[in-house]
Amino acid sequence: MIRAVTFDLWNTLIENKHYTEVRVRILAEALKKNGFSKDFQAIKEAYLSTHTYAYRVWQHENHRFVPTKERLEYILKNLSAQLPEDLKAKIVKEFEETALSDPPRLTEGVKETLECLSPRYKMGIISDSGVTPGRILRTILSEHHILKHFDVTVFSDETGYNKPHRIMFETALTKLHVKPHETMHVGDLLQTDVAGAKTIGMKVTWLNKEGRICAGCYKPDYEIEAVTQIIDVLNGIH
């Protein structure tokens, strides 16, 4: 019997949105004010290089989460630039809060789906954070009027690890007071959502919007093309 449902966030409940240009402008302005006249494209390339760095850490350091401060230090090192600590703290804060001024939209049908499920199941979010931390994501979810549907929200900047690390899923299960086999996880990434949830014994529904081929060791229990279809999946189990 399924007693709880957990959701991935990005591209599952909210649409992916990138803030590269805004963050690069923030950094470029700070560098200019401190005597570092770096070309905008060079700063952008240094910023984008943190994605490769974070992925390398994810691969080789047991899925460790890379904090925004560490990302900024990596950028500055690549640019051979130095900034005072108080200014770096200010940039980190601005990087992390960028999404507040232009928040990502909900994916289609999310509100209706959550309104249907939350009276029947314990509900959770299990999400990687990236540069936008959990404290900001909760604010965005609250502004979209959907945070109220969740009993638990777990973000990688708060656990110190990204999915598929088991701590992400175990933290949610512990707080929801449910066992793995009593919980359905819904997410769009095979390598993180499906792999992580299956490893600890959860049921998994793969949100496959693009009709991709399921390849790899971890096979989802169910597959859907839209988040609204999870209602039918759960209805079919009981």
Structural features, described:
By secondary structure, this protein is of the alpha/beta class. It folds into two domains: 4-16 and 103-237, 3-Layer(aba) Sandwich (Rossmann fold); 20-101. It is 48% helix and 11% strand. The protein contains ten helices and six strands; from the N terminus they run E-H-H-H-H-H-E-H-E-H-H-E-H-E-E-H. A six-stranded parallel beta sheet has the order 3-2-1-4-5-6. Strand 4 (183-187), helix 9 and strand 5 form a beta-alpha-beta unit. The protein starts with a strand and ends with a helix. The mean pLDDT is 96.
Short characterization:
With 238 residues, the chain is of the alpha/beta class. It contains ten helices and six strands; from the N terminus they run βαααααβαβααβαββα. The longest helix is centred in the first third of the chain and has 21 residues, at 40-60.
Count of helices? 10
Oligomeric status: single chain
Q: Which CATH C-level class of the largest domain is it?
A: Alpha Beta
Shape: elongated
Strand arrangement within the widest β-sheet reads 3-2-1-4-5-6
Question: What portion of the residues fall into strands of 2 or more residues?
Answer: 5-15%
CATH architecture of the largest domain: 3-Layer(aba) Sandwich
At CATH level 3, the topology of the largest domain is: Rossmann fold
How helix-rich are the residues, as a percent range? 40-55%
Distance between the termini: 7 Å
Helix and strand pattern:
EHHHHHEHEHHEHEEH
Q: Main β-sheet, in a few words?
A: 6 strands, parallel
Number of domains: 2
Which class best fits the helix and strand makeup? alpha/beta
